[in-house]
Amino acid sequence: MHRLLDRAHRALFAALSLIGLRGQGRVLHWYFDWWHRRPDPWGLAVDDYEQFKYATTLRLLPHRPYRRILDVGCSEGAFTHRLAAAFPQAEITGVDISERALARARTPVQGRAAAPRFTRLNILTAPPEERFDLVFCAELLYYLGRPPHLRRACAHLTRAVAPGGLLVLVHPWPESRRFCAYFETVAGLHRVIEHVEPDSFRPFAVTVYERPAAPRPGLPRDVRATADPGRGA
C-alpha cells in the first residue's frame, strides 16, 4: 500500500513543479505550513521506523570530528536535536521551508542538548549561505518534481558541503538511486557509502558522498594529487 501512496505522492509533486520555481515554492510553503498546523504530523519524534532510520544514519557516519552540521528539511527538528546530542561540540543548523515547523523546532525543551540554530530556507530556490562539514538531506528530494528542479536543488546542496565534508542522503529505496544519479554527475563529489535497508517497513538507503579536501598549500603537485586528508573509517 505504501508504494501506491508513494507513487501518487510523486505524481502530485511532479505536476506541481510545472508551475515554475516561484509558484512551486509558494505551494510547498503553504503545503508544509498546513501539515504543521498540528505538532509532529508525521510522528518523526516518536515513530519506531523513524527512530530506526535515524539510528542507522548516525551509525554509518565515518568517525571524524564534525565542526559544522546542516540538516536540510529539518521539519520540527527531531533529527536535528538528535544530532545536537550526538555531536555536542558541533555548531548545528536546521533549515526548512515551513515557519510553523521551525517555530516548534526552536521551542526549548528541558533536558535537550545545546540548542541548534533554525532558519528558513527553500533549497529549491537558494543554497545555504555557509559551508558545512556534514550535510543531511532526508525524505526531501521527491517533493521537487521535474529533473530541472532536482538538478537545481542538488547543486545547492552540493555547494553547501565544505572541502573534505560529507553529504548524507536518506530516501526510499530504490527511488534513492534516481536522486543519487544527480550527485554522481557532479564533479568533485564521490560516493563513499551506500547502505540499503531492504527489509524495513519502508525500504530506504543511506548514501554518503564526500567532497575532496582542498590541496594543502606548498605541497608539490604530485603530492597534492595523492595526499589523503585523513578520512576516518
Automatic annotation (TrEMBL):
Domain Methyltransferase: 69-165
Pfam families attached to this UniProt entry: Methyltransf_25
S-adenosyl-L-methionine among keywords: yes
GO MF entry, a single one: methyltransferase activity
Highest taxon of the lineage: Bacteria
Keyword entries, A-Z: Methyltransferase, S-adenosyl-L-methionine, Transferase
Any Gene Ontology biological process: methylation
Entries under PANTHER family matching the protein: METHYLTRANSFERASE, UBIQUINONE BIOSYNTHESIS O-METHYLTRANSFERASE, MITOCHONDRIAL
Protein name (Swiss-Prot/TrEMBL): Methyltransferase domain-containing protein
